[in-house]
Amino acid sequence: MENSITYPIKAVSNLTGLSIHVIRAWEKRYNVVNPDRTETNRRVYSSKDVEKLKLLHLASEKGYSIGTIAKHSVDSLRSIVAEEYQEVNQKSSNDNRDVISNDIEMSDYLRSSIEAIKNLDAHNLEKELYRALVDLSQPKFIQQVISPLLDKIGEMWKSGEIRIVNEHISSAVIRKILTSLIDNNTVPTNAPTILLATPKGQLHELGALIIGVIASADGWNVTYMGPNLPGEEIAAAIERLNPKIVALSIVYPSDDFTLDREMVKLKSLLRKGAKIIAGGRSVEAYRNALDSMNAIIINSIEEFRNELENSRN
Predict the structure, then answer these.
(1) Can you give the pTM of this predicted structure?
(2) Are the C-beta atoms of residues 184 and 216 closer than 8 Å to each other?
(3) pLDDT per residue over 185-197, tens digit each?
(4) How far apart are CA 258 and CA 263, in angstroms?
(5) Which CATH number fits domain 95-183: 1.10.1240.10, 3.90.190.10, 3.20.20.100, 2.60.40.2550?
(6) What is the pLDDT of residues 110-151, one digit of tens each?
(7) Which of 94, 105, 134, 139 has its CA 20 to 30 A from that of 28?
(8) 10, 45 in Cβ contact below 8 A?
């Protein structure tokens, strides 16, 4: 599904270093890329479009006229800007060096993102995360950037290294990016449906959005129902939409006795045969209630993707 990933024009601007005005001007005058349109007529760009725009930007900085290179292929543009392109996308032919290089890149993404969070710099945080998205598939972006970044944010907050406002600003940026990825992923019209929510009392929603990105990247039709949802509302959505999977994110708190009651309520209301999956940092604290409703507990993204594959088959 990686080839179906698309980006809104603001993200493309952040990723390429080109202003939105320049991108639109190059499209209109030189037809450098042909973005698709959403149902609401918004431009969405493929990974290939983003790469070509980055290469054109590098070439223009070397002195090339866009009018003379606009029709060049990506491979041709790579040759034109070979020196600069290799500096920002250097790949080693040696497998071991590849691993080392990738680790360094991940550290760079995280280091830059953490610095932006400490400085309350939402713009640079968003820019760094979109930069990572260009180089990584969505599942790798989640596993290698977003998940460790959220862990680090939690550690910094507990240690007093950042304030609540830092955590709130970073959460807002991450939520925005994850939601846009779910919205912009293209899935077949007959794709199976997965419903996502956090149960009543669970206010942290990034875990649910993370699995939404993974599911949509794997070709599932994702309906996100939001945080803090009572059992009867989850049951109503299941009744109406008849999904194959209902995924519940349980992060914090881990000692809410009302959540057990919500799970009992949800169990009594279920009439459809949807599979219930539950995951998150605090999921084990509610295992008894989840076991009673035959929910499948997952502890990693790999386990979640396996469940998606098994359910599809």
Answers:
(1) 0.65
(2) no
(3) 778 888 999 999 9
(4) 9
(5) 1.10.1240.10
(6) 889 999 999 999 999 998 898 888 777 788 888 889 989 998
(7) 134
(8) no
